[in-house]
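Handoff note, outgoing to incoming analyst
You'll be picking up this chain. Sequence as last confirmed:
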Amino acid sequence: SPPGLLPVNSYLPYHRNPDFTGRETFLLQMAQTLLPQPDEAPQVKVAAVSGMGGLGKTQLAVEFAYRYGRYFSGGVYWVGMANEKHVAEEISRLGGERGMKLYRAADNLVLADRVGRVQQAWQAAVPRLLIFDNCEEESVLRRWLPVTGHCAILITCRRPRWPRGFDVTVLPLEVLSETESGRFLQRLVPRLSEAERLAVSHEVGQLPLALQLAGSFLNRYEQLGGEAYIQQLQQMDVVDHPSLQGWGSSYSPTGHERHIGEMFALSVNKLETAEAADQIAKQLLVIMTCFAPGEPVSTELLQQIMVPDQTDWQATILFTDGLNRLITLGLVRRESELTVAMHRLVVACVMGMIDDVQKEEAQTAVRETLMERLNPFSLPK
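Most recent structure output, in case you need it:
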């Protein structure tokens, strides 16, 4: 569906991004999941676009709103949920004179009453699209999810699963395809050759945010040729390159972080707690840097490295919790039931955050486990 006008009284804080590229099949999948159908009984539908940071989840939600918002006669309403303390205020704003017109400023309603009017309207049999951006916590979703009505709720999040009770349809988002990455870079930097576009997209792992930053950098510094830029990426830790730290880019369509390393570091730093699962997750993060970036790694192998005594069921449970913690934070993704992988830029970020001792200890643990698997009977090596 081509972009169009939003229904009257909608609230969407972002303009459509004219450089949006690709994701056509995914947008159709979102539409099939969320659009109201003719003659269907009013029901609450919930879908979550999930994936690591930098994939463009928020931008995708904006694009969906402009393409399909007109099918929700009751309007499109955006709620930022990154900070739980501000959610009530954001929701109350939707009901004002610039939104749903449920009250006037002159009414002098307290916050609880303003929020209550919006929530009551959400439970009417009117199709509405609610976008809960950066909703990561179960408690937050439980607090604000309409219990009845005809709202479709689109969540953007890093976590790949929600408890069954929420009845959330999870739509996992991946990096752009090679073709989409090339088209995106062609739109941003027309002077690049096809081979240069392919090489740049490979170096940054086809991550949309990284592609956008690379394109902005090359546009700003036109004297830098594509081949020279690629050589720079290859000759240093890629996340340390100025282009991926926001140089040459003064604009973000959704106001998000423009520094790749800092974006991933925020997630890594969430493991700085005394929780046992977080401590295991930190160790596992370092272990995974020993493998080829972006390539699938057997979870059974990782467990053997982390839990040499396979009869230690408590350690096995902690390993599972630690791995799930990394997946929930978007630092690691499931490739299959038996494998996980870490994006090459996450690997580069983690490598820059650990010291030589940690690297050596991790490499030793991996090497010893691999030798044990090759020589299970402890024959002379």
